[in-house]
Write a structure and sequence with these properties.
The chain is α/β, with parallel strands linked by helices. The chain has 9 helices and 13 strands. The strands form 3 sheets. Strands 1, 2, 6, 7, 8, 9, 11 and 12 form an 8-stranded mixed beta sheet that branches. Strands 3-5-4 form a 3-stranded antiparallel beta sheet. The protein has a two-stranded parallel sheet with strand order 10-13. The termini are far apart. Bound molecules: ligand 48H. Ligand 48H binds next to helix 2, strand 2, strand 7 and helix 8.
Amino acid sequence: MSLDEIVISRAIIDRFARKFSQGLDVDVAVVGAGPSGLLAACYLARGKARVALFERKLSVGGGMWGGGMLFNEIVIQEKAKRILDEFGVTTEKFQDGYYTADSVETVSTLCASACRAGAKIFNGMSVEDLMVRQDAVAGLVINWTAVEMANLHVDPLAVRARYVVDATGHPAEVVQVLERKNGIKFGTPKGSFQGERSLWAEEAERSTLENTGEIYPGLYVAGMAVNATFGGYRMGPIFGGMLFSGEKVARMILERLGQTV
Ligand code: 48H
């Protein structure tokens, strides 16, 4: 058999069209494939939710690849070790209470786990807006990142989702769009976007988990986007809070869907 370039091209188009079509109408749309988004997508898919994950960059993993200051090791606190153990990521004790993991092994394992659980991951796509219906978030407005970068005037496509998770990290882009374009008040103490504060690891890890949840009907926030939304501190390169936040948001949504992890 000789290779036919058109068959190769058609295979990609057909398979992508099938996957993309499935991703357009889902139970949960996760925005951002950093550690919190990847973990949320994985647990949601394991719980039998239909999940699509949209990531602006070509690579998934967000800020985890670089560990701390490009030293590609992450630190987790002892209580977060059970999550990495569950996925088979190698961890090593540094001293009492502190464990390390290779950031490349961690990202690639979480990504593979999410895909194998059934989450559909769309990289190179940016979420530029939301669908809002009767005072609830009803989905996303997406476009190719290449279109965004080239500043081309190309209309986007829409994704319907029962629940949206903002896991966009420091900028909390989805939350900010909701506030900017719709002038609404949402579930922070002041009812508005607060912006992230300086470094305090202990307090940041605590408040990330505490504030992970639904801030407006249909919109959940997870990971670093939680701190930005609620005015929480940053925690630096310790990742337990990101893992716990992804796990918590998945559990909350699965409960709403009547499913369990
Ligand atoms: C599609 C988007 C969009 C968009 C952004 O930053 P992340 O790694 O997010 P988290 O919250 O899972 O993890 C945060 C962690 O990496 C970190 O930065 C920590 C712990 N910092 C502590 C500190 O003190 O600095 O990933 C977010 C992802 C990225 O890959 C973005 O490209 C993506 O979201 N993203 N994708 N559409 N509009 N906005």
